[in-house]
Write a structure and sequence with these properties.
five-stranded mixed sheet, alpha/beta, binds acetamide, about 35% helix, about 450 residues, about 20% strand
Length: about 450
């Protein structure tokens, strides 16, 4: 018996499938942890065994794929499959720049579960919006969840969206049922203008600003010396920790200009009191304080790789290496766990998938093959450091994507392709074989009513 060596549709057509024996799906399914990863479909039931929960989830993904291919039926067959090479297999969606309603998110989460993703990193706050409630901070919904789109200098359109606590719980439950753990993200200390629009006292100037309606990096950032800010962050993190069952909360950390900190009296005072030589060290101080709140709430903090631009932060913080792989090298050399998501390495799916003029997207090219080429094993590192690499994730930033449907076109097929890279690893992956499955991927997506960009693959 051949072990299935791909994530998209087990290639069992020529192996064990008797096409004359199709059974109507769903049928009863038994699952158990065991020494072997195996799916056995017989006429009256499906039996799945897996070496762990990840394997059981992927097995269900395989079966759902088959039911899509065979249009409501599954073939009688039995096959074994590999365990995942990496334990962190994530996807990130920015639901701030454009609000993505819950139903649209669920469609993407469900599709991701077909190919073995196990973490959903949910970007919930940024300059352009704050998208979840914190008890006693009503202005988050009133002010921070709305941005005004100006035309001829008049406010003539509002973009807004806010998830209720019930929405967050429902997404968490839906993801969990599919073997996916949600990681909520609060951006700190930068990318915070939407928050500061409602609560200027959390910022350095105290000035009233609007929720940002442009894309980029902005100077209004959180004020480390604001006592009110810390009360708020305690409340916000506590709220997230009470909703999401997973082990991680993401604390942002990226792209935080320090210009306001340089001259701010309160910031200078903290630096003096703590012997911090510069504002980069002040950001390290900030990261330590936020990650401490996360820890006290029973979770582990993850930060974008800027968190290691300052020398000393808690080793327990997981570092997401997005500015290439430099962050991963530094973080692993300091003993941090690392997740790879290099913007130039097939992980930023908001990049154009091809050079065709009609493509949606942003900034630069990231062809599907780049998501397969990424070497997640980081061969260059020595053994101890390599063990700190937990896996990788794809990221979808939403500046130029207006709906879940548009997101789908950017995510698929590249997310399917990265998933296989993550599951199989360097030794087993095979681009030639992957390309052969293009039509099958199209069929699965079509039957699932998920948009998949057929475009160019390399
Ligand atoms: C990022 O792309 N600013 C993490």
């Amino acid at each position: 018996m051949k072990t299935i060596d791909c994530l998209l549709t087990p290639r069992i057509e020529s192996e064990n499938v008797k096409y004359d024996t199709l059974v109507s799906y769903p049928i009863s399914c038994e699952k158990a942890i065991a020494d072997e990863n195996r799916v056995t479909i017989s006429t009256d039931k499906i039996v799945i065994t897996g070496k762990g929960e990840d394997e059981l989830s992927l097995a269900e993904g395989y079966i759902k794929q088959l039911s899509l291919i065979f249009d409501g039926f599954v073939p009688v067959c039995s096959f074994t499959f590999y365990s995942p090479q990496y334990k962190y297999r994530g996807f990130h969606l920015d639901c701030v720049r454009h609000f993505i309603p819950r139903e649209e998110l669920l469609r993407i989460i469900d599709t991701m579960s077909l190919v073995g993703y196990n973490y959903f990193h949910w970007h919930l706050t940024d300059d352009q919006g704050w998208r979840f409630p914190v008890p006693n901070y009503d202005k988050l919904e009133e002010i921070s969840s709305k941005r005004y789109i100006y035309d001829n200098d008049s406010r003539n359109h509002i973009h807004q969206g806010f998830y209720s606590r019930e929405d967050l719980e429902a997404v968490n439950k839906y993801a969990e049922e599919r073997g996916i753990t949600v990681i909520p993200e609060i951006e700190t200390p930068g990318h915070a203008e939407a928050l500061l629009a409602a609560y200027p006292e959390f910022g350095c100037t105290g000035n009233k600003i609007d929720v940002q309606n442009n894309w980029g990096v902005f100077e209004n950032v959180m004020n480390p010396s604001s006592p009110e800010l810390w009360v708020f962050l305690e409340a916000a993190i506590k709220e997230l920790a009470s909703i999401f069952h997973g082990p991680f909360i993401h604390i942002g950390g990226d792209e935080c200009p320090h210009v306001q900190w340089e001259t701010h009296e309160g910031c200078r005072r903290i630096m003096e009191e703590n012997g911090l030589k510069n504002t980069s060290e002040l950001q390290g101080w900030f990261t330590t304080k936020v990650s401490g709140i996360v820890k006290r709430n029973g979770k582990r903090a993850i930060g974008w790789d800027e968190v290691v631009d300052s020398p000393e932060i808690d080793k327990d913080v997981v570092v997401m290496s997005w500015r290439g792989l430099g962050g991963a090298r530094i973080a692993s050399s300091r003993g941090h766990n690392v997740v790879l998501c290099p913007e130039n390495g097939g992980c930023y799916l908001d990049r154009f998938p091809s050079t065709e003029p009609w493509e949606l997207g942003n900034l630069s090219l990231s062809v599907p093959k780049a998501s397969y080429d990424l070497d997640i094993s980081m061969k260059e590192l020595d053994e101890e450091k390599r063990k700190l690499v937990l896996g990788a994730q794809c990221c979808l930033w939403g500046e130029r994507l207006h709906s879940g449907r548009e997101m789908e076109m950017m995510v698929f097929p590249r997310a399917y392709i990265l998933a296989e890279n993550l599951w199989l690893g360097e030794e087993r992956k095979d681009w030639g074989e992957m390309k052969d499955r293009k039509d099958v991927l199209g069929l699965i997506s079509w039957r699932k009513d998920i948009l998949c960009n057929p475009g160019k693959w390399e």
